[in-house]
Each structure stands twice: as C-alpha cells, then as structure tokens.
Design brief:
about 425 residues; alpha+beta; Single alpha-helices involved in coiled-coils or other helix-helix interfaces; Heat Shock Protein 90; 3 domains; 5-stranded mixed beta sheet; 12 helices; about 65% helix; rod-shaped; nucleotide-binding; kinase activity; ATP-binding; EC 2.7.13.3
C-alpha cells in the first residue's frame, strides 16, 4: 500500500502567504505600508547627510516643521490608487512649501513624488493621467529652476526623462491590465456561449433522434393493429393462426415499448411540426455498403470487417450505429488528410454489438485544435445516440497515430 505524500509548509512561509493575501485584499493598507517603508529608509538621510559647501547657508536645518511636511507628503501614497491625482497635487504642494521655507530636498519626498507620477498614470484614464503628468513636469522644472546651485543641461534632461519614463511605464501597465481584463472577459463570454451551444446541440440532437424513431414506433403500432384485427377475425375458426398473431403482437409490442421507454427519458422539447418532411425511414446497418461506397468515391480507402454471427439489432440501435459510423467517417474525411486509411469493424456477441471506426491520419491534432479540447456538435451527437440506448462510447487518439471511435450497444432491450 502506497503511503500518501504529505506536504509540509513551514510556519514562516505560511505566515508570509497569509500576510501577502491580507495585503492583496486591502490595497490601501499595502500602500500605507509602502509609505512607511519610504519614511523609515529616507528619514535618517536628513540627519546623517551633510549639505554641499555653499548650500548649507541657503537651506535651513531639519526641525519638527520639516518632518511634519515630509511625513504628510509621504503618507499621501496611501491614497495613490484611490485618489492618485489628489495625492500628486498634495506632494507637489509640499514641494512648494519646502522650497519656500528653504528646506533641503530629501529621499522620502522625491521618492513619493516619483511614485505619485507613476500611480496617476497607472490608475486613471488618459485625460486625468495626462493632467497629472503635466503638473508633475511643471513642478519638477520649477524646482530645478529655483534650485540655488548650478544645474547643467544634463540634469534637466535626465530628471525630465525619468519622470516621463515613469509616466509612460504607468500608462503601459494600465493598458496591459485593461487588455488582460478584456481577454478574461472575452474568455468567460466564450465559455458561456460554448456551454449554451452545447446545450442547444444536445436538445436539437435529441429532437432529431425522436423524429428518426417516430416512424419505427408508428410501424410497430400499425403491425400490432393489423395482427390484432386478423386474430379477432380468425379466433373461432383458426385458433393456431390466432395464437401466432398474438405472439407477433407480443413481440412487436415489447419492441415498441422498449423504444418508447428509451426516448421518453431524453425527449424534452416538442416535436418540430415543420419537420414533417424528415419522417422518412432512416438508414441502418443494412445500408452500410452504400455508405462505404460513397466514402470511397471521395478517395478515402475504407475497409469493413464483420466478426461474429450477425444479428438484427433493434431499429433504434440500427439507426444509431449507422449514424455513428457516418459521423466518424465524416470526421475522417475532414481531419485525417488525403493519404489516410480507415477501418470499420462490427463485432457481434450474444449480448452486444461493438462498432469501431479507426483511421491512421492526422486527425488527433486537427480535431483538438479545432475544438479546443472540447467536443464539438458531432461528438455531442455521438454521445447522445449511444447513451440513449444504454451503450458505451470511447473517442480519442489511436495507438500508432490517427483517431478511433469505439461504441458498444446492448442488443437486448
């Protein structure tokens, strides 16, 4: 007996996954954590880094007022997804205040400014994101012009390129998210449509099967009526003939009841009265030779083998087996390729009839590519026909290449 594998996840990894899931469910809390991280990483720079010579006279030393403004600017990142333009405007306003009060630039306020530029482009439409980008560029260039030191053209170019690059990155990610969301929505719509089509195909196939069996059941009832009338007329003068007629009525009645019992469980729609022209008797296995001749005329090589002692199946099974072979050979013609060969086998036993249709073409890859690994309407019809008579159906690739269909129909009701 095999021992089941047990996966062990360390408490540390489990805790990280729980924390990540919690943050993904609360994006504003995740943004607040990002803002706190920027503060913790950037605030020591205000006290540890010395100003360049010449700027120490212009800039004021860090005090409580300076810290309050920087904390307010950085914590606005907690609203970078819900209110990105407002967060960017507050951060820009904080820049103006720090410049007017002669406080030196720092890592937290500049990082918050860059994150806000990216956020307004990534989480808002083109009009609002373009307005936010314009505000960001005006504020950056105003700060660079007001900077007390001498800045070369390269500083202007690199700083502006950084801001524009972050804005473009945010726009591209927004468009990419929208594209993937559209793909997911389209896939969901196609999945719903595929399910609707499959249900419609089943309903249509069941209705068509009922129409095919209509003539069979009507024929049985007609035979029973004629035999009953004959038995009534000869009952007194020819009892043996009457008993023979009653035996025939019993056999035909059982067959008719068996057919009715099969179709009542699956028929869910009213018969289409406009399809009265389709009520002609349907072909059966006796017409298989003509079908194979038609297929050979198309150029497909088809061989037929019959194993066991041939028995006459019930009319419904006869129609279902014929239609199954017809559909399988049609798929072979469409998908197997011009050099393919096909084989049809009928195997009779005492209890059932096995029908096998195989080919050696390239149908496996073609059918799967066409149907996306899901059954099409033809395959749905095969399953419905076989299930209607309590049979079993297997459809799939064949060992050595090609495609195979194998169905087993019980011969007894």
């Amino acid at each position: 007996m095999r021992t089941p594998r047990v996966s062990v996840v360390s408490p540390r990894i489990s805790g990280l996954r729980t924390c990540r899931a919690w943050l993904e469910a609360r994006p504003q809390a995740a943004d607040a954590v990002l803002a706190l991280a920027l503060l913790l990483l950037g605030l020591p720079q205000l006290y540890l880094e010395d100003l360049p010579r010449g700027l120490d006279v212009y800039y004021a030393e860090t005090d409580l007022r300076h810290l309050v403004v920087i904390v307010a600017m950085t914590m606005m990142l907690a609203f970078r997804r819900t209110r990105p333009l407002a967060a960017l405007c507050v951060i820009v306003a904080g820049w103006v205040v720090l410049t007017v009060w002669h406080y030196p630039p720092s890592i937290p306020d500049f990082a918050a400014y860059l994150v806000a530029v990216y956020s307004v482009a990534a989480h808002r439409g083109l009009a609002i994101s373009a307005l936010g980008g314009l505000v960001a560029l005006v504020a950056l260039n105003g700060f660079l012009v007001a900077f007390p030191g001498e800045l070369g053209i390269m500083s202007f170019m690199t700083d502006n390129a950084l801001v524009i690059g972050l804005w473009v990155l945010g726009r591209n990610l927004r468009l990419r998210r929208a594209y993937f969301a559209e793909l997911e929505d389209r896939a969901a719509r196609l999945e719903r449509a595929r399910g609707t089509d499959a249900r419609a195909a089943r309903v249509e196939e069941r209705s068509r099967i009922a129409r095919e069996l209509h003539d069979v059941v009507a024929h049985h009832v007609s035979v029973m009526t004629v035999q009953a009338g004959a038995a009534r007329r000869i009952l007194d003068r020819h009892p043996a003939g009457a008993r023979e007629a009653m035996t025939t009525i019993e056999e035909v009645g059982r067959t008719a009841l068996s057919e009715m019992r099969r179709i009542v469980g699956v028929l869910r729609t009213e018969r289409d009265e406009s399809a009265g022209g389709e009520l002609a008797p349907q072909p059966g296995l006796g017409d298989l030779g003509e079908l194979l001749d038609h297929v050979r005329d198309t150029g497909l090589s088809v061989q037929l083998w019959v194993e066991g002692e041939a028995r006459t199946p019930s009319p419904g099974v006869d129609v279902a087996a014929f239609r199954l072979i017809q559909e399988a050979l049609t798929n072979t013609l469409k998908h197997a390729g011009p050099q393919a060969r096909a084989w049809v086998r009928l195997r009779y036993t005492g209890a059932d009839l096995t029908v096998e249709i195989e080919d050696d073409g390239r149908g496996t890859a073609t059918i799967m590519a066409d149907n996306g690994d899901r059954p099409g309407h033809g395959l749905v019809g095969m399953y419905e026909r076989v299930a209607l008579y309590g049979g079993e159906l297997r459809i799939g690739p064949r060992v050595g290449g090609g495609f195979g269909v194998r169905a087993r129909f019980p011969l007894e009701a």
